[in-house]
Amino acid sequence: MQWKHINFFFFLQSLQFLLETCKILVVGAGGLGCELLKNLALSGFRQIHVVDMDTIDVSNLNRQFLFRPKDVGRPKAEVAAEFINSRIPDCCVTPYPSWKCMNRKHFRLGIVKMSLLNYEDGEVQQSTVVPFIDGGTEGFKGNARVILPGMTACIECTLELYPPQVSV
């Protein structure tokens, strides 16, 4: 037997349960979001939701590999979901082209992966925080952080560590 640790069998059962029942929300289907969607689906997660208000531009095609030239002008969330769903059996990626399309009061999440360039004040309610993985890029710079309720600093506590947003 390859795996001899006594608790390994129970770990496999727990992992299978998580892969089948955990709902994951990916916020943003850009460069980082495309990579996250692919990795989550290939890891075996089956209930993935993606929110992105943007449409595909020609400039996205060199780094956002879920999109093709024929997709220019279409909603990123919709195209990303179609791409993953067509290639990974039993995976269900549900697209949301805006926050308004989601029924957030009835949407319970297990993990949130966020890939946005900025945060809006009051968007995150601390009472509803679940494990949260945040990442972003700007030019050649990147950042990533994990937020575990009750174990790590909250989102608002670490925002001052990032440079201020500059409007162009």
From TrEMBL:
One Pfam family it belongs to: ThiF
GO biological process terms, semicolon-separated: protein neddylation
MF terms in GO: ATP binding; NEDD8 activating enzyme activity
EC number annotated for this UniProt entry: 6.2.1.64
Domain THIF-type NAD/FAD binding fold: 7-99
Catalysed conversion reaction: ATP + [NEDD8 protein] + [E1 NEDD8-activating enzyme]-L-cysteine = AMP + diphosphate + [E1 NEDD8-activating enzyme]-S-[NEDD8 protein]-yl-L-cysteine
Name of the top EC class for this enzyme: ligase
Entry-linked InterPro entries: ThiF/MoeB/HesA, ThiF_NAD_FAD-bd, Ubiquitin-activating_enz
Tagged with keyword Nucleotide-binding: yes
Stored SUPFAM superfamilies: Activating enzymes of the ubiquitin-like proteins
Alphabetic keyword roster: ATP-binding, Ligase, Nucleotide-binding, Ubl conjugation pathway
GO CC list: cytoplasm; nucleus
Functional pathway: Protein modification; protein neddylation
Superkingdom of origin organism: Eukaryota
Similarity-based family: Belongs to the ubiquitin-activating E1 family. UBA3 subfamily.
Role according to the record: Catalytic subunit of the dimeric E1 enzyme, which activates NEDD8.
Protein name, entry field: NEDD8-activating enzyme E1 catalytic subunit
